[in-house]
User: Fold this.
Amino acid sequence: MMVEKRTSRTLGTGHDTFWEWCGKGELRLQRCASCDHMQWPAGASCENCGSTDFGWEAMSGRGKVVSWCTFERDYYHGLLPMPWNTILVELEEGPLFISNPKGFTWQDVTPDMPVKVAFIDCEDDAGPFRLPVFEKA
Amino acid sequence: MSEFSFARTPPASREMSCKAAIVGIGETDYHDDYKAQRARAPGYQAPEVEELATRAFERAIADAGIDRKDIDGLACSFTYGGPPPDAMANLLGLSPRYSIANGNIMAGPLPAVCAAIAEGKADTVAMVYSVASRAIGREYGGATYGSGEGAPTSYYYYHPWGWSSQAAHWAMMFNYFANRYGATERDLGAVAKQVRDHAALNPNAVMQKPITIDDYMASRYIVRPFHLFDLCLVNDGAVCLIVTKDDIAKAMDNVPVHVAGWGESRVTKSKLQAMVKERLRLQMEDSAQQMFGMAGMTLADVQHFGCYDASTMHLVNQVEGFGFTPPGTGFDFCKDGQMGIDGRMPTNTDGGNLSGSYMHGWSQVVEAVRQLRGEAGPRQVRDARVAMTSLVQTDQSHPILYVRGDA
Assistant:
């Protein structure tokens, strides 16, 4: 099994729960129990109303690629192979999710291309974790 | 200190309009300093924040025609650290009754000082901004940012996916925009070329050699689809503005440039949505409404525009977002020459951050003053009486309006 080294995640209240769900192979995002706002990135409190009462809503894992950019400059100093592809996925449920393509590159991207979530094994300074990425649906 | 310690922008109010004016400007030698840094001749010493700030200050008081003893306020804006205000005051030989550390990028500092003057805290304030970004090897992506520095979440949250940098924000915005409106890399190149053409008319611009769109296409990619020329410079320098009460300004030799209005608007939730899909249009609209309401003016009054252009797309997005051209038409507006000196909205006539100097929004203020005084030489916009600058960040908008004060 190949484990990819990545730059550290943001951890703490809210964030930890997101990564725990990823560890179980599930993409779940915070839904505020008070105002119903769906929040990504995760946080300790609701960016809309300040409540700390969240439910964790399961995403379908389906979405479409609405934008992308590919790094030719190696900002992470050798950690990642260059060029490094990133995509912006609009999840079926609405939130925009920055991620990586799995099994394709920017050259394969077509407008609103359908994708589905996959989890890959990674590790950072805090240890191993599973990272949500997207493959062609 | 990081670039995310913003100055508080006071509320836009009619009473604050034109109560203070810019009467002195000073800048360091962006072009020569950059060349010296690249050449690194034997004995070369990288500049320091204090020395740069002092140089800009001396030029600003000479420009204003005042003595340092006339200054009773000091506002320091050092993006990547610098001396505290009392130490800087000592260095400059000042004994101010009002001295503050005043954020850093041009998102709040000038309105804060204008409000302080209107409230009687000081009569004449030297505003000093200084950075040694290049000397300290500042990077604008990668693990530079963490969660503890007050940076927007998007600056650090996506590290596990290898996504970061200013460039990546605007590249994501551009590709979304391109899908919707059909823009190309050559269109980006046209913006880079336009701004470079302006820089060629500015003897202090860092990059003055004209480029063609083919030069642009041949330049290396940084974050695809962005090439080198899509992204702003990284250089060292300082800016000083002398700001004084309107009645004192009237008695001075320079034509005063009044600060007529300002506004501020921030995204508070779903920030990627607001940036990529809505392109911060709501924030620009909201903040501009505050600014024009404060000044009692409209968009139609604006004759010169200077915006914080961290990238070509960033620039086009502000030209569109403030309403100088309809959504989706910004690149055509540029290609038609409408951002040029004789265009419908002369924009970043000093070369902006892309080719002129990266002073975090401060050089745009200096150019607005030059244009309104009629001192912009070969790049002078005819009869310019009203100018606007804007600093739009990834999640906020800060426009300022200036009026030539001899009316």
In short: The mean pLDDT of chain B is 95.
